[in-house]
Design a protein that fits this description.
alpha/beta, globular, eight-stranded mixed beta sheet
């Protein structure tokens, strides 16, 4: 029965793989938009698609099939995905309203002559403060589209603390509306769930395909604890035992710095390095602009 449910990418999107561009919907640290075409070329045939660290869902856009499962432990993110799927008009109109409020304020101030201690535009910081109190997914969408480089960053109390990106005013609402519409049609039939990745993957069986893009081990200022590598590798081993095919984006190199963690060689059959542009985090921290290559591990 697998064959009748397999996704054929060219039929789904109506254009060659090399011309596929994933629309930038949710700004999120570690997005695989730049690698999506390269990763998609390697995907096997499958029945259901699983993405247990969904983030911005770059692979999900083309890989989703009815019955697919996308999850994350960060509830506002999953709530935003559900709104895009079920009430896209609400997402579009909220963004339009917030974008207009922000830009009305920006038109009235000179951002080039701000004191280093001034938190302007005030509207952005009001929304950020409100989000930290209410965790409204629509506010999350707005601050991610207008904060510095779309980097998800939290303080030690769990409050979102990235700043406004002074040189950007956010995506034009008309463009955002087009992107939301495209995504909304692409993710119909996907089950978005807020839960731990291990629980999500208990549902995967032979004939399914799993794409994993967990946060780097040792990550800081994120909404999740450091990745427990021992537990994570055990979950991959269980997928192998059940005959579930998977691909894992994990570790790699930033410039001359190795960020590699030892993935047990018994878990996978292939390993490739994919270019991921330059490090956005380093740019924000005023460090050197370094080329990034990320590992892709495949068990098939």
């Amino acid at each position: 029965m697998i064959k009748s449910l397999e996704v054929t990418f060219e039929k789904k999107v109506g254009r060659p793989l090399s011309k596929r561009v994933v629309p930038s919907l949710i700004k999120w640290t570690g997005s695989k938009r730049s690698q999506a075409s390269a990763i998609l070329k390697l995907l096997p045939s499958y029945r259901r698609y699983f993405e247990p660290f969904v983030g911005s869902g770059a692979i999900l856009y083309f890989a989703a099939t009815p019955g697919s499962v996308a999850s994350d432990i960060y509830r506002p993110l999953i709530e935003l995905w559900r709104l895009i799927q079920t009430d896209s008009r609400k997402v579009v109109e909220n963004y339009r309203t917030q974008w207009m409020a922000l830009n009305s304020e920006l038109d009235a101030i000179d951002i080039h002559n701000l004191s280093t201690h001034e938190k302007l535009p005030a509207y952005f910081y009001q929304v950020r403060e409100r989000f930290n109190e209410t965790h409204d997914p629509l506010d999350l969408n707005f601050i991610m589209r207008t904060c510095v480089n779309g980097i998800v960053r939290f303080n030690d109390k769990g409050a979102f603390n990235n700043s406004f990106h002074l040189s950007r005013r956010g995506m034009m609402p008309s463009r955002f509306e087009q992107i939301v519409s495209s995504w909304q049609s692409s993710i119909q039939g996907v089950d978005f769930v807020c839960q731990d990745y291990e629980i999500t993957l208990e549902r995967a069986t032979k004939g399914d395909f799993v794409y994993l893009d967990p946060p780097y081990a040792g990550n800081k200022q994120r909404y999740t604890d450091d990745l427990d590598l021992s537990r994570f590798f055990t979950v991959l081993e269980r997928l192998n035992y059940r005959g579930v095919k998977w691909a894992l984006s994990f570790d790699g190199y930033r410039g001359d710095q190795s960020l590699v963690h030892d993935v047990p060689k018994l878990l996978y059959k292939r390993h490739q390095l994919l270019s991921s542009g330059s490090s956005a985090v380093n740019k924000v921290l005023n460090g050197p602009v370094e080329a990034v290559e990320e590992s892709l591990y495949l068990n098939f």
